[in-house]
Amino acid sequence: MASRRVRVRTLIVAAICLVFGAAVLGALPAGALNTVTVDTTTDVVDGGDGLTSLREAISEAMTDADDTTIVLSAASTYTLDLCVGGADEDANVGGDLDYVSGEVLTIEVAGSGKATIEQTCANERVLEVDRVAPTTDLVTIRDVIFTGGDARSGSGAYCDQESGGAICNTLGSLTLERVELRDNFALTSGAGVASADGNAVVPGITLTIVDSTIADNSSGNSGTGVDVSRHGLDMTGSTVSGNTSGSGGGGGVYVHTTAAGGLNNPASISNSTISGNSANGPVGGGGVFADGVFLLNLTHTTIADNNAPNGPGDAIRTFGSDVRIAASVFASAADNCFGGVTSEGHNVALDATCGLTGTGDTESATPGQLALGALAANGGETDTALPGASSILLDVVPTASCAVTHDQRGVARPQPAGGNCDIGAVEVAPVLPAISVPDVTFVEDVAG
Prior knowledge:
This protein has 448 residues and is mainly β. Helices cover 9% and strands 34% of the residues. It is built from three helices and 35 strands. It has an 18-stranded parallel sheet that branches. It has a ten-stranded parallel sheet with strand order 3-6-8-11-15-19-23-27-30-33, with no helix packed on it. Residues 1-30 have low confidence and may be disordered.
C-alpha cells in the first residue's frame, strides 16, 4: 500500500511539473530560433510558388519576432535581378537586400564551400543592415561571397547614401566569418563593407571580420575595403588587398570618428595582411587611415606594397589616433608611416618614417632582408605573403611577447614549439635539413 502511494505521488508531481513547464515555456519572451532554408536561387517574391527565395527569407526574418537563421546552399549563386523599388527603398521589395530589424540574424551555408550573392541591378549595393535602434545584438554572415554591389546614388540616413558597396551596416554589431567581398563599388566609401552610425558613439557596437577576404573593390572617395565610423573594429585572420580609393584616403582600411567618447569602441587588427591597396587622394594612407580619437592596435600584421601616390603614408596615415603596433611589418617602398605610431616592440619597416624605437625594432630594412613572397594561397582561408627562409622576420619575437597563439592561416605559434615567434601575419615552419644516407653495398659471402 505504501508503495502504491509513492507511485501515485510521483505521477502527480510529474504531471504538475509538465503543466508548469509548459506554462513557463509558453510565457517565454521572443528570441527562439527560426530557421529558414532558401530553396531557389531565383530573385523572386511569390508567396504562391511553394519556394523560398533569399529575398523572401530576409523579409520573413524581418517580420518574425524570433532570432532567425537563413540557410543557403554551398556552390550556389543567388543573383539579385529584381530591379524594382528605387535606390532608397528599404522594404526589401527589390534591388538590394534590406534587413531592417532589431532581431538577431545569421546567414550561413549548408554543406562544404561558399555561396555567392551577386548584384546585377544598377546603383544597388548587395545588402543593407539597419538595426532601427542602437544594439549590440549580432547579425552574423558566414561563408558567403558578395560581388557586384554598386552604391552610387541615394540620400538621407547613412545607408541611404553612397556607402557600402557590398554591405552597409548601421546601428548594430556585424560579424563576417569566412566571407569574401570582391569587385564592388561605392561612390563615397566602404565599397567592401561600411559600418557606421550618425554622430553618436554607442559603446560595444563592433564590426568583426574573421578569416575573410576583402579584395579588388573601388570607391570614389575613401575607405574602400573597410570603412568604420564610430563603431569598433575587430579584424583577425583576414586579407584586405587590391582595393583602390579615389579622392580620399584609406585604400584598404579607414577607421574614423569625430564624436567624443571614441575610445569606447577601439579598433584591432591582428594576424592579418593588408597588401596592394591604393589611396589616390591627398589625404594618403594607402593601406590604413586612422582618423580621430580612438585606440587602434596592430598586432602581427603584414602591411605591404600599398601606395598613396598623392598623399602621405603609403602603409598607414594617422590623425589624432592612438595607434600601437607590435610584431608587425611595414613593407611599402617608401613613406610607410605618417602621423605617428607607438611601437610596442619587434616591428620592421623598409624606411625610417615609422619612428621605430621599441625593443627588437628594425628600421630601414631592405626588401632582400624581408624576403616577402607575393600574395598567394599559402594555406588557410585567405592569401598571405610568406617570408623566405632567410628573412629577418623569422624567429625574433620572444615567446613572452608573442601575443597570439596562431598565425593568419591557423598555424600554431611559435614554430618550432618553444622557440621564438615570427614578425607579421605568417608563422613559417622550419625546413628540416635533408638527411643524406650513404650508399651501402652488401656482398654475399658464398665461400665454402
